């Protein structure tokens, strides 16, 4: 066996499919965004709670194991006691388990928020990852529709706290009970009609994409697209179709509420649902949230199979350019509603609950499009360079570094090969360091340090073409006593911050 055969194989570094590494810029932007969301939630009286990434698989509800390895939609494994555990699919099912398990200790109504990663064992695609962050707020134990109305107000306040101005967002509200009433009114109320109801829901969900005429075809015989592919319709007759299109086509709810009430009159829950929508609209209006911010919109159908009452969706209404170069509305960045059945699964008794989930990554993309993220600059650290490697000199450099940190200034002492000073300045340049601090033997003897304003130096170096004049000018460099080091660094950083502010204002 030769040496080449004995050489061990080098491990190949590879990122798992559907997952992504996050950069410092992304993490800072996420922290900036979630801090603003958290401030709104706290102001509304919500408190944080944290649940683990893993739950027993049966606690996740509809994603139950249906084979010896339950990987349909979730990442699962068996514990040492042969029980299946799964990475959480969302943040709501773990909350339901937490409430049920601690029901006798928690104070109802239980108002809480959570931010964290969730995991979907699904096929990844462009912009679709198998790990992503959600930020939820929930109220458990409040049966009244005022809890749903307040969720909508909180979402509107959150959008504005993030810098999304009025007119660029709307919180759209519908009610599962009203849609159930419409289905019952057109003869699709029984269990035997469940499949047809689902086809109607799917057709309504295409309203934004195909318009009323396209949805009419999908509610009826079916629709052929431009490529010739045919989608079978829900098979409704003309009268049924007209009633569904009236419902989802309501633009001014105040004008149409009475007519909608007549349509669902006599159904099991339709009238109650209309009353709930009326109440949400009235509460929102009383609190100063008009239909430009919170709008009753019967075309909202996403997730209606999951919810038991009001449903709401935060939609951004400005245009963006998609990957095909087309102008499209940005769309939904979060949704929620009333889910009175979820905690009840564990309790055997009714436990009302309502909540809202924000898709953090999607909302972050929207904020970047609007130029609303990265405004809070994260300044790279001031670099204390190393000219001498003896213990006494290193101690002085470390003392300078700590003095800056103690005043709240990001600072680091160079940790690489200090003997090549040019490499230290290259490092500072690549890091974007605002200032380099230099003290050689001559400066140490005089008790002074040199400060290089690297930002100003970079700017001026572009204006001075002649190397001799550059050296002669000693641009953006100052010498101060050791005692004045921190004060001078603060002065330079303040001047740099003012330059950035002016550049943004231009």
From TrEMBL:
<keyword id="KW-0067">ATP-binding</keyword>
<dbReference type="GO" id="GO:0006427">
    <property type="term" value="P:histidyl-tRNA aminoacylation"/>
</dbReference>
<keyword id="KW-0963">Cytoplasm</keyword>
<feature type="binding site">
    <location>
        <position position="138"/>
    </location>
    <ligand>
        <name>L-histidine</name>
    </ligand>
</feature>
<dbReference type="GO" id="GO:0005524">
    <property type="term" value="F:ATP binding"/>
</dbReference>
<feature type="binding site">
    <location>
        <begin position="306"/>
        <end position="307"/>
    </location>
    <ligand>
        <name>L-histidine</name>
    </ligand>
</feature>
<dbReference type="Pfam" id="PF13393">
    <property type="entry name" value="tRNA-synt_His"/>
</dbReference>
<keyword id="KW-0547">Nucleotide-binding</keyword>
<keyword id="KW-0436">Ligase</keyword>
<dbReference type="InterPro" id="IPR004516">
    <property type="entry name" value="HisRS/HisZ"/>
</dbReference>
<dbReference type="InterPro" id="IPR041715">
    <property type="entry name" value="HisRS-like_core"/>
</dbReference>
<dbReference type="GO" id="GO:0005737">
    <property type="term" value="C:cytoplasm"/>
</dbReference>
<dbReference type="InterPro" id="IPR045864">
    <property type="entry name" value="aa-tRNA-synth_II/BPL/LPL"/>
</dbReference>
<feature type="binding site">
    <location>
        <begin position="90"/>
        <end position="92"/>
    </location>
    <ligand>
        <name>L-histidine</name>
    </ligand>
</feature>
<dbReference type="InterPro" id="IPR004154">
    <property type="entry name" value="Anticodon-bd"/>
</dbReference>
<dbReference type="InterPro" id="IPR036621">
    <property type="entry name" value="Anticodon-bd_dom_sf"/>
</dbReference>
<dbReference type="Pfam" id="PF03129">
    <property type="entry name" value="HGTP_anticodon"/>
</dbReference>
<comment type="subunit">
    <text>Homodimer.</text>
</comment>
<feature type="domain" description="Aminoacyl-transfer RNA synthetases class-II family profile">
    <location>
        <begin position="31"/>
        <end position="381"/>
    </location>
</feature>
<comment type="similarity">
    <text>Belongs to the class-II aminoacyl-tRNA synthetase family.</text>
</comment>
<feature type="binding site">
    <location>
        <position position="120"/>
    </location>
    <ligand>
        <name>L-histidine</name>
    </ligand>
</feature>
<dbReference type="InterPro" id="IPR006195">
    <property type="entry name" value="aa-tRNA-synth_II"/>
</dbReference>
<dbReference type="InterPro" id="IPR033656">
    <property type="entry name" value="HisRS_anticodon"/>
</dbReference>
<dbReference type="GO" id="GO:0004821">
    <property type="term" value="F:histidine-tRNA ligase activity"/>
</dbReference>
<protein>
    <recommendedName>
        <fullName>Histidine--tRNA ligase</fullName>
        <ecNumber>6.1.1.21</ecNumber>
    </recommendedName>
</protein>
<keyword id="KW-0030">Aminoacyl-tRNA synthetase</keyword>
<feature type="binding site">
    <location>
        <position position="134"/>
    </location>
    <ligand>
        <name>L-histidine</name>
    </ligand>
</feature>
<feature type="binding site">
    <location>
        <position position="302"/>
    </location>
    <ligand>
        <name>L-histidine</name>
    </ligand>
</feature>
<keyword id="KW-0648">Protein biosynthesis</keyword>
<dbReference type="InterPro" id="IPR015807">
    <property type="entry name" value="His-tRNA-ligase"/>
</dbReference>
